[in-house]
Amino acid sequence: MGEGRKDIEDRYKALKNKVQEELEKEKGDGIPTIRVTMSTCARAAGAEETQKVIEDTVASLDVTARVIPVGCLGHCYAEPLIIVEHPQTGFPPICYHSVNAGKARLIVQSYIKDADPAFEYVMGAMEDNELIPPVTTFPRFGFEERIVMAHCGRINPWDIREYIALGGYSALVKALTLEPEVIIDEVERSGLRGRGGAGFPAGRKWRLGRTQKADRKVVICNADEGDPGAYMDRTIIESNPHQLLEGIAICAYAVGADTAIIYVRAEYPLAVKTIGHAIKEAETYGFLGNNILGSDFSLSVRIFQGSGAFVCGEETALIQSIEGRRGMPQHRPPYPVERGVWGRPTIVNNVKTLSYVPSIINQGADWFRSIGTEKSPGTAIFSIVGNVKHPGLVEIAMGTTLRTLIFDICGGIANKKAFKAVQIGGPSGGCLSDAFLDTPIDFDSLTQAGAMMGSGGMVVMDEDSCMVDVARYFLDFTQKESCGKCTFCRIGTKHLLDILDRITKGEGQEEDLTILENLARDIKQGSLCGLGKTAPNPVITSLRYFFDEYVAHVREKRCPALKCRSLTAYYIDLDKCARGCEACVGSCPVEAIFTTKGRKKAIDQSKCVKCGECMTACPKEYDAVRKVSPPSLAPIIERPHEEKVKEGA
Predict the structure, then answer these.
(1) Is 600 in contact with 572 (CB distance < 8 Å)?
(2) Are strands 94-96 and 82-85 parallel, antiparallel or unpaired?
(3) Most buried in the list 79, 163, 219, 226, measured by CB within 10 Å?
């Protein structure tokens, strides 16, 4: 028989007090702490070298400081980031950006040793104060509203004690003192919708799972994040794995499951390692395993590493994969919640969905509903990539407009270019034009606009993007990722891709525009799973909102964005070209540039491979290289006789 409510709470309280005392003791009397972001994006930017230089400099200067790895703050454009607490100086914790090895050495020397914060490298203070402007005055921080990411980049994901000290696992403790139906009522009342893409109410799914009569049930955490440019789930796992594990445990307790599986792709080695370590820690501290915190509830959590097939993000394909079969979607019903992995009722939820649960249990459904919109409560987490100034991970309240997200929070379009489109919802999402910038970000508004929430991938494109080529790019991805089960998806997407390929090469025909539209509609109607049903979305939305670009490609053989290689050409403006300058000649990989009779340079169009290196190499003061579409606009310059002889002509 398990312990009663008070015993569970007392056990947790004693544990929390113990770890807080341990952490306070480790802090010592005013010892500086340097937290270094060590997520995948930070490591890619050189964080491992930064950490090593910090440790080496601390040792060489014979000063004392603790160096602690943390997860991602979401500000990928500014990695590597470090946060320095130096209690003896009186300054609040300070965040530094783009800390390479050189900066790291200077900051340690200046701040840790000499108590000078090195203001020239400061991004902002992590707390409100009167000495240093806080980071919240920067829109990229200030406009965000964080629930899932509240602790990301601030705690050590490899030390469960830091999570517990902040109240981590208190929601599980509370849940264990409640009847499972009460928990499901709260989640249902909160209006939490699945953040994996479909937006199905999480509470309703849990209730369906709870009512199934079975000896054993399973909870699956879907971390098979396959969208190009999306990294929300990976970042959450790398930055705060225990919040996810707590959500999984609460879900399992509510639905009556004794097994949980985290399905994470093998291409995320750091995430796999981090969550594996977190599971062991949680078992050691009694939050997972047998008789959790002395209760009757037991839960075994294990990791399943997927092989990277995009279609396995679909829950029935994912279950097939776990069972050792080829990952292919299955007909429903029965739904997984009725008959899932190994024939057991299975509740499949996304990483983000489960990570919201501890906050909902602790703060209540009304609090969660006070954020976001009526039909889409809470926040949304996006990985913003593409042509914005401040890309990275952003958590915002549902209902925030696309304009606020792109221009206010992410700083607008980079390199003084104009906004052209935003692609939302992963490779099978929709491309929206500037007419939709004031669209609120929520499940229903985006669907109505022709896009979808998806799992949170967002690609922002500037005026240099060709929407026909963008549609071709995303369709190329979904076509290759099709499992091949449905004829419409397998063959239909191939035909779509072939047509788009022809159009971007200037070989499109007038009737292709009608075929594209009809075929896209047929694929949506005839496919079994979400991948097939949504694969044509980039084609449909780009046809709807950027039809003039298709017309230019097909009728005028012209690419308005100057992107499609077959429809463009480079030439050198002889009025601007400087005699004697050889910059473009050395950059050309195919020796297509020759000297004219006037000792200026010209491009042999028959040899040019349109790489654009000559345009990059041309000195700004001359700016003589031009790119045009259609290619016929490029003037033909005849090679001088001596050049032909040199070429062997």
Answers:
(1) yes
(2) antiparallel
(3) 219
Q: Tell whether the model's pLDDT for residue 451 goes beyond 90.
A: no
Burial 491-520 (b: 16+ CB within 10 A, else e): ebbeebbebbebbbebebeeebbeebbebb
Instruction: Note whether 67 and 54 are within 8 A (CB).
Output: yes
C-alpha span between 30 and 65 (Å, rounded): 9
Give the pLDDT band of residue 645 (cuts 50, 70, 90).
low
Distance CA 79, CA 63 (A): 25
User: Element (H or E) spanning 480, and its range?
Assistant: helix 467-481
φ, ψ (nearest 5 deg) of residue 336: -55, -35
The per-residue pLDDT of the chain, averaged, comes to: 94
pLDDT reported for residue 215? 94
* Mean pLDDT on 325-336: 93
Rg (CA), the chain: 28
What 3-state class would DSSP assign to 628? strand
**Tell me, what amino acid is at 112?**
I
The pTM (predicted TM-score) of the whole model is 0.92
Judged by DSSP in three states, 65 sits in coil
Q: Are 354 and 255 in contact (CB under 8 A)?
A: no
The CA–CA distances, whole Å, from 179 to 184, 185, 364 equal: 9, 10, 15
What CA–CA distance (Å, rounded) separates 509 from 555? 8
Q: What is the pLDDT of residues 527-552, one digit of tens each?
A: 988 888 889 999 999 999 999 999 99
pLDDT at 279 over 60: yes
pLDDT on residue 1:
44
Question: What pairs with residue 24 in β-bridges?
Answer: none
Residue 475's φ and ψ, nearest 5 degrees, are: -70, -35
Binned at pLDDT 50, 70 and 90, residue 415 comes out as: very high
**Amino acid at site 297:** F
Contact of 482 with 465, CB cutoff 8 Å:
no
Q: Are 286 and 259 in contact (CB under 8 A)?
A: no
Token pair recorded at residue 3: 């312990």
Who contacts 353 (Cβ-Cβ below 8 Å, separation ≥6)? 192, 194, 195, 196, 202, 247
Query: Pairing mode, if any, of strands 300-306 and 259-265?
Result: parallel
Q: Is residue 294 within 8 Å of 281, Cβ to Cβ?
A: no
Question: With 90 as the cut, is the pLDDT of residue 203 above it?
Answer: yes
Burial of 324: CB neighbours in 10 Å, binned 0-12, 13-18, 19+: exposed
Residue with tokens 């709260």: 186
Q: Which two tokens stand for residue 484?
A: 């091949």
User: What gap in Å lies between CA 353 and CA 361, rounded to an integer?
Assistant: 13
Tens digit of pLDDT for each residue in 101-135? 999 999 999 999 999 999 999 999 999 999 999 99
